Amino acid sequence: MARTDALVLGAGIVGTCIALHLARRGLAVALVDRRAPGEETSFGNAGIIEGNTIFPPPFPNSVAALVWIALKRASEANYHLSFLPRVAPWLMAYRANSTPARLVATAHAMRPLFSQAVAEHEALIAEAGAQRYLRRAGWLKLYRGNASFAAQARELELAREFGIDNRVLDTEAARELEPALNPVFRHAVHWTGAVSITDPLALTRALVARFVDLGGVVIEGNALSLHRAAGRWRVEAREGHVDAHAAVVALGPWAPDLLERQGLRLPLAAKRGYHRHFRPAGNARLSRPVLDCDVGYCLAPMTQGIRLTTGAEFAHRDAAPTPVQFDRLMPAATELVALGERVETEPWIGSRPCFADSRPVIARAPNHSDLWLAIGHAHWGLTLGPATGRLVAEMMTGATPFCDPTPYGVERFLSP
Question: pLDDT tens, 341-358?
């Protein structure tokens, strides 16, 4: 490249949206990844643009739930015993951030990003000509028992405060929306303002194509090679090194590998997750994603089939896959919806980069010249990619940010 203003490291949905927003503002941008765009963590999700999100998934608050997880019987969580000592400090911090008061504080801190999630997606999707991947049908959360539904009272109260549209439904009203659902649940909430994506990988590729149309360059390179050279940031690529004035780290669960080399240690953990696709059995088709809240999985209609996603697994990011959660949740999933044969032989596995306070870091890196961070989006990388891209681009170019970035600052993890 004759001139490169910015390197964006990581071509998942977050990095792609940052690169696109910078290119839209006239910067010469190189998007760098070791793989093709969208093929890592961004590939595996339920496809929901969760502008309605209020509370993050909390640490279990009942002894019974913890015992069930400890005995490796729970469908919503799994763990590798050898990994627990390493992740224990993060889990304790996660637990501390799951008190009712802190969850409400997190909901308020994240609302500026979530409130713009759908609009920012729609703007980039329209620009990229990718409307065919957008579904405007909301999504359903199902509750099998009265107690689990009653536990959502605070969430629904905050939804009214935030002006988030939803409809509380009984079993039959929910089945009018989704006739394929069997009546094994008692309550449902239809979050009407949410949208969803039928093929997250195809969407990322469409956004990358628009980025290239604007003059952006996609480079196969080693993000971990980032270093300073002659007063600029440099990465090594297959075609040779690439230099730029600024660099953005959007490497998801691989961010610590690079940041520790730069002397920055942040408490980022990776929650692993799995998905696999099933062909519909007979007429058992879905029109929108469905979350079985009591069991902890999501069924989402995708281009590839009905995608079944698992809960979290706490294990080393690079450990061999252990998709045992499918065995635990399949009886409930097939009880809810008739699923046909598997599409793939092996399930997909990926890692969600999470901070214990369920907020990302979207900020300039401390003590580094023109190094920016956009990491730790947890379960909402797809949801918040475009909003994050806009916020980073505004901060990098000196424009007025559309929201206060303070809640997403890195300083909250730095010792005095």
Answer: 999 999 999 999 999 999
Which residues 6+ apart lie within 8 Å of 413 measured at CB? 266, 267, 355, 361
The helix or strand, by DSSP H or E, that contains position 162, with its residue range, turns out to be helix 153-162
State the Cα torsion 97-103-105-108 to the nearest 10°: 130
Q: Please check whether residues 273 and 187 belong to one and the same domain.
A: yes
CATH of the domain at 390: 3.50.50.60
- Position 297 in a domain: yes
* Angle separating helix axes 381-397 and 100-128, nearest 10 degrees: 80
Residues 241 and 278 in one domain: no
Residues 190, 169 contacting (CB under 8 angstroms): yes
Total domains in the chain come to 2
pTM score, two decimals? 0.96
Residue type, 136: R
Interval 78-128: pLDDT, tens: 999 999 999 999 999 999 999 999 999 999 999 999 999 999 999 999 999
Could you tell me the residue range of the domain that residue 144 belongs to? 70-77+139-192+269-354
